[in-house]
Design goal:
EC number: 5.4.99.-
GO molecular function: isomerase activity
Shape: elongated
Helix content: 10-25%
Enzyme class: isomerase
Distance between the termini: 19 Å
Family: Belongs to the pseudouridine synthase RsuA family.
Strand content: 25-35%
Keywords: Isomerase, RNA-binding
């Protein structure tokens, strides 16, 4: 049961739920409701005193979904190069679990959303929201990921068309959603790759297949979540709008 729920799981006044979720004070929450800025299960609510079940209701304020369960954790981690995407490593190698150890030690059962190989750095989502994580990783929801790759050689313009049309790998065809060349210097190219594929080493394999092996790879975006200037090895809590955007991307 969430903090917002009644002692017996009974429905709770909407303004009380909003206040306990940290949206606004109870009085300010009443004003939000009166102005038609609050939706419950897809319908605007303007009346005071409406009660809902916080365990099942989908509540949005100005279109942003409000997560009512205060035990849920949503983190954006900048995984450094050389770290393995596991919460613990039996060989004692550096891993993601080391970077969030304080939260795990405090009793939070966290897991990573998808994987980055040890030599790839950048954005990795960490949460304890199992349903959201499952959907974000499921290919049917087509949540895009953006990578910056430094590759060997001068990438020709034809590579864009080739990758967007698709190439055949050992485990089947694959293609990118977007591809662009950002810079060319000293026989290397910096390229941007956007795709929703989730197969192992997919970016490295695609670029190697078209003749440009990856020398360095960074994931800079996962859906609506951007890495920005976050330092390697650090994590931050996702904002309410960011969490809402992830929910929306997978139909929750």
């Amino acid at each position: 049961m969430t903090e917002s729920a009644g002692r017996d799981g009974a429905p709770v006044r909407l303004q009380k739920i909003l206040a306990q979720a940290g949206v606004a004070s109870r009085r300010a929450s009443e004003e939000l409701i009166a102005r038609g800025r609050v939706e419950v299960d897809g319908k605007k609510v303007r009346e005071m005193g409406v009660k809902v079940d916080p365990a099942t209701a989908v509540i949005r304020v100005d279109g942003t979904r409000i997560v009512l369960d205060d035990t849920l954790v949503y983190l954006a981690l900048n995984k450094p190069r050389g770290y393995h995407t596991t919460m613990s490593d039996e060989k004692g190698r550096p891993c993601v679990g080391d970077l969030v150890a304080d939260r795990v030690d405090a009793g939070q059962r966290l897991f990573h959303v998808g994987r980055l190989d040890a030599e790839t750095e950048g954005l990795l989502l960490v949460t304890n929201d199992g349903e959201l994580a499952h959907r974000l990783m499921h290919p049917s929801y087509e949540v895009s990921k953006t990578y910056m790759a430094t590759v060997t050689g001068v990438v020709g313009k034809g590579v864009n068309k080739q990758l967007r049309a698709g190439v055949t790998l050992e485990d089947g065809p694959a293609k990118v959603d977007q591809f662009s060349i950002l810079d060319v210097h000293d026989g290397r190219s910096l390229v941007k790759v956007v795709l929703h594929e989730g197969r192992k080493h997919i970016v490295r394999r695609l670029l190697a297949e078209v003749g440009h092996p990856v020398e360095a790879l960074v994931r800079t975006r996962f859906g609506a979540i951007a890495l920005g200037d976050q330092r390697a090895g650090t994590f931050r809590k996702l904002g309410r709008k960011e969490v809402s955007d992830l929910y929306e991307a997978v139909g929750l």
